[in-house]
Amino acid sequence: MNEKNIVVLVSGRGTNLQAIIDATQSGYIPGKISLVISDCPDALALIRAQKANIPTLILDFKSFSGKKVYEDELLRVLKKENPSVICLAGYMRIVGKTVISQFYHRILNIHPSLLPAFPGLDAQKQALEYGVKVSGCTVHFVDEGMDTGPIILQAPVLVKETDTVETLSQSILEKEHEIYCQAIKMLLEEKLMIQGRTVRVKGGIK
């Protein structure tokens, strides 16, 4: 059994997946992506995985009779893979209790805002409409809430007066790629300690 397996759940373009692929191939992340799972058959992320010779699996949500049946199959697959970390990378579904309870503190998500500000969908649009001067991104453990799990890393991004949803999203995305890979690396190196809502890093963040 490879104790450093990474499973990535995707729904869309897969730019964060690509960053994780690159970081594993370079040796920065001490593990390998053993499987990429998509709930969307035409996700571009699947093509990225296939180009990197990473196994892929499509669990088309529409082909299941409901969320419970879908989650049960997802859990079955994840148990078989037994990953050290599960990364949500543009995965557009809320992970259910059945999966979270089996992989507690092993599921990570990246969100395009400085949580707890602007959770949920369209975070960049929310930030611009609110008029914030600084936005950013957050890597956090996944719990049963909506973007509410303990925060691992955050990176700020200055909001320009000329920013649109598209330009702000792109600026934040560049930071996402950096801190997501950093958080995965720290988790696999067993450097994260969780005390209540606070995540501490052994030796500090470098």
TrEMBL record:
Keywords: Purine biosynthesis, Transferase. One of its GO terms (molecular function) is phosphoribosylglycinamide formyltransferase activity. The record marks D147 as: Raises pKa of active site His. (6R)-10-formyltetrahydrofolate binds at K67, M92, R93, I94, V95, N109. Gene3D superfamilies: Formyl transferase, N-terminal domain. Belongs to the GART family. This is Phosphoribosylglycinamide formyltransferase. Its EC number is 2.1.2.2. The active site is at H111. Pathway: Purine metabolism; IMP biosynthesis via de novo pathway; N(2)-formyl-N(1)-(5-phospho-D-ribosyl)glycinamide from N(1)-(5-phospho-D-ribosyl)glycinamide (10-formyl THF route): step 1/1. It comes from Atribacter laminatus. N(1)-(5-phospho-beta-D-ribosyl)glycinamide binds at G14, T15, N16. Catalyzes the transfer of a formyl group from 10-formyltetrahydrofolate to 5-phospho-ribosyl-glycinamide (GAR), producing 5-phospho-ribosyl-N-formylglycinamide (FGAR) and tetrahydrofolate. The keyword Cell membrane does not apply. Residues 4-184 form the Formyl transferase N-terminal domain. The gene is purN.
